[in-house]
Amino acid sequence: MLAVENGTVAIAGRPILRAVSLTVRSGEFVALMGANGSGKSTLVRAMTGLRPLSRGSVRLFDTPLAEFREWGRIGFVPQRAGATSGVPASVWEIVASGRLTRRRWLHPLLRSDRAAIRAALDVVGLADLAHEGVTTLSGGQQQRVLIARALAGEPEMFFLDEPTAGVDLPNQQALAEALGVLKDRGATVVLVAHELGPLAPLVDRAIVMRDGRVAYDGLPLADHEVHGPLFGDSHTHHHAQPEQHPHAPHVVSPIDAITDREGRR
Amino acid sequence: MSSFLDLLSLPFMIRAMTAAVFTGLAAPAIGTYLVQKRLALMGDGIGHVAVTGVALGLLTGTSPTWTAVAVAIAGAVVIEIIREQGHANGDVALALLFYGGIAGGLLITGLAGQSASTLQQYLFGSITALSDRDVWVTMALAAFVVLVCVGFGPQLFAVAQDQEFAKVAGLNVRFYNLLVAVLAAVTVTVAMRTVGLLLVSALMVVPVATAQQVTRSFRTTLALAMLLGTAASLGGLITAASQENLQPGPTIVLVALAGFVLTWPVGVVLRRRHRLLQPFAELDPISHEVTDEHPHVHGDDCGHIAVQHGDHVDYVHDGHRHATHGSHYDEH
Asked: Which domains are present in chain A?
């Protein structure tokens, strides 16, 4: 399904991922774990093509990433920052945008599209809120909207980047139920998580990242084991580190773009 | 009154009204995407850059409209590139571009031996002085903008909403971002003759801000903004025509702003109401607690807000939540 061979990522010259090799088989539920800055998010971003590899290769469905075009087979759930924007958007509209992988240009929503969107909303338990504005939802509900959006494209493989970060327990449980449905359907799931919480029973395999390398790859671990001495920093809280810039010029020329920790511009 | 109607049927007024309708449709259509991307001032920036384009047209003796289109598109692409390279203070870089644009425009106009008043019709609009050809160009460009904004709506929405998701969904994010920038540039030059380069952004942003007060979804915001934009530009033009000494450009913008000022309180009330009526969490009360002596009978029109709580409603009553239980009310 997915193979990373010798994957190396450098952001602004600093190596973030170093020679990571792993394969994910069809139907596996993999948790990518590790401390902040261990490279787990970068690894997922490399797998989905958001972050180019400086060396090595990623193959999705036996196709090199550069030639991969069947984006409908992949569902991506980014970290929750992207749920709101300057104009109101309803839950339905956000979820419908997940259908774009299967829609053709200038075609209206077909009946099959509508059915898929409705089914996705049912899985995450938000069908009643379909016509609410997404900004009126709680953080956990917004996260479920993003999962429904990925589901609407009916993918075979899911990438989730920290779906449980900052989500309260009842919403984590709702999330776990939705992911349980996916697992029962035979979907492959790669999930970045700090702590598994209610997701723990779903996980088949844990990969623990440490300082840009794979430190552990095997049976699921309990949350506290992930932060044992072997795996480095045991400090588990997520603090957003605001990027510091020198005060003086504050104007960036196009050639020296500044990137943040995850390499987002 | 009849003389006023006669005025409206004069050829120059018919041309002006046609241009107003098309501009009023196109500007909020692209403006909605700009607001969604939090680039509400991008139209303003492109407008500043386009001043140089107009001046180049005056200098070289070619049509200022087409040189403005070319320079505006170039400016929009540069703005988009600066934005994509991204930095919290990219706005400073944009400011440099804006002032360069307007200063360059004034300088070149002087070199061309034209007075500032020539430039003024582009800065503040000259909708009543349009030729037939101007109107055709306006109609064609505006129709193009509207068709792309509506036809590629789902793609543009997805990219503006969440770039990373859109990229993993296989959309060419850079292409769609550039498309929005180019459409914005085309719209600026279309609206240049209607409301003027300095006021263009108002027609792109104000109807969207007004529509947002009462909408909850993107599609209704887009549709309502286009409707409001058309109403404002046509209404402003006719108001200006009915009075002496009223310039159409500023009148159109002020009509649009008046729409916002009138809608704002409505939006405040609607949002407050929506918040009050949010269902309570489906938790059972901690204990069975009967209210004190309660002479008031709660019902559909009792004046208290009824909020869904699981399978029943609670009436919000002086900070308490009263639920009907047999012949008395419980505190929930």
From this structure: 28-38+70-221 (3.40.50.300)
